[in-house]
Design brief:
With about 260 residues, the protein is of the alpha+beta class. Strands 6, 8, 9, 10, 13 and 14 form a 6-stranded mixed sheet that branches. α2 crosses α6.
């Protein structure tokens, strides 16, 4: 059986364009100690809980910002805590009624995988996938600018990276940017206000990678559906959502995805 690492930490959301690593950093609280235990029984396969989802587990394959399979991903499956999976089923039912399906890129991520990202970021000579995911950034800035972090909210088990799939066109919905893109173009407030849903045509016209009004609207369709069912967004990635009342806010798990 795998183990989880329970670390009483103060979680802080890190800005990140890609990293799915994306997620949250933390600082240890004084007077608390780390506890190790197994917690796989708290998780379910997403496809069991939400049978209509589509999986494209990027870290099991080679089309990701590293360019190789990520440590800890033994099968192309996805897990979430039972609580998060139940709420995701509600999201799926809602978007299905609108003609969409949810497409999952990543969900629970073992700490082993996060450690792989950190090692990769430290090797500035490895730029195999630069042109696909961070063409405008020097790799040396990815860790200092919080694109990569030593802790990820994904490892707490209630965070999911996803998009919409249009059942009519049988294609992914155009979100105006790829999953795991490192840059401001991934930010939810790029070319619009995610709180009001108002598109900013002036900002879009002022940048070569500006979103169209339709692309921004598509992002908002996903965001609103996730928020209505208890998930919260972060400021750096349009695809990244965490269950607001996540059951393990201070626990980082490390059993393999298999």
């Amino acid at each position: 059986m795998g183990t989880f690492i329970k670390i009483p930490l103060r979680a802080c959301i890190l800005g990140a364009a890609l990293l799915i690593v994306s997620a949250s950093c933390s600082a240890p609280q004084q007077g608390r100690k780390t506890v190790y235990s197994d917690g796989r029984e708290h998780f379910v396969l997403i496809t069991d809980a939400v049978p209509d989802v589509i999986l494209e587990i990027r870290y099991f394959g080679t089309y990701n910002f590293v360019g190789s399979r990520i440590d800890g991903y033994m099968r192309p499956v996805a897990f979430l805590t039972q609580e998060a999976a139940a709420r995701l089923r509600e999201v799926s039912d809602e978007v299905m009624s609108q003609g969409y399906r949810l497409k999952i890129y990543d969900a629970y991520r073992p700490q082993t995988a996060v450690d792989h990202f950190v090692r990769w970021a430290a090797d500035v000579s490895d730029t195999l996938m630069k042109r696909y995911f961070y063409p405008d950034l020097d790799k040396s800035v990815l860790f200092p600018q919080n694109y990569i972090a030593s802790r990820s909210g994904h490892s707490r088990g209630s965070t999911v990276d996803l998009t919409l799939f249009d059942m009519r066109t049988e294609k992914e919905v155009d979100m105006g940017g790829t999953f795991d893109w490192f840059g401001v173009e991934s930010h939810p407030d790029f070319c619009g206000n995610p709180q009001t849903g108002v598109y900013d045509a002036a900002q879009a016209a002022d940048t070569p990678l500006g979103l169209s009004e339709e692309q921004f609207r598509n992002r908002m369709i996903l965001r609103r559906a996730m928020e209505r069912h208890g998930f919260m967004a972060i400021d750096s990635e349009w695809w990244h959502f965490t269950l607001r009342d996540e059951p393990f806010p201070e626990t980082y798990f490390d059993f393999p995805v298999e």
